[in-house]
Please model this.
Amino acid sequence: MTKIKDLPLLERPIERLLNIGVENLSNEELISIILKTGTKEKSVKELSLELLKENDIHDLKNINLEKIIKIKGIGKIKAATLLASIELGNRINRKVDTINDIKITNSEIIYEYFKSIIGDKNQEYFYCVYLDNSKKVIKNKLLFIGTLNYSTVHPREIFKEAYLVNATSIICIHNHPTGNITPSKNDIELTNNLIKVGMILGISITDHIIIGRDNYYSFFENNLI
Model:
């Protein structure tokens, strides 16, 4: 087992970063810097290599805490540090950093914000964006994770949050992990059901947007709302 401190000074990841630039470090070296230390049984280099062996570098974008800590030697603190670094990178690459207090004038604003959040997810995520009477965003909230159907997405939870934040309208958003943005029968039935409930409660559903990997489908733009 080769520990970082046993390497010649100029071969250590942090020293290499300082001398040749962060862009020239390997994936293993970058992860080693984030994890900082290894264990008695494994060096930080070995932990980094094991993480990369189990996951392609692009898969790390969607990795979760449970999967990381399955690697012996990476506890919750190291895993949390890695997850924070990944999320920071995701946020840096977002074209739209936040939609809070933004006036929603078109569906593309919603798409640009959510595509980097759920566009590459392997499960369906269902969000709602809550708007005031001037169409400004009050809040966005993840409400459901999993297959989109009536058993998981319930109008009660969607409209309950609207009342809590005094929203006058709602935009629903979910992703299709397949990348196919065509609405399913369940998507259409759910949207129609939400519209009917909203009419009764006085809170309108102004759009339902399906996020794909590099495109989106808007019920509003397609005259379905």
User: Anything to note?
Assistant: Residues 65 and 79 are 6 Å apart (CA to CA). DSSP finds eight helices and five strands in the chain. The first strand starts at residue 125 and ends at 131.
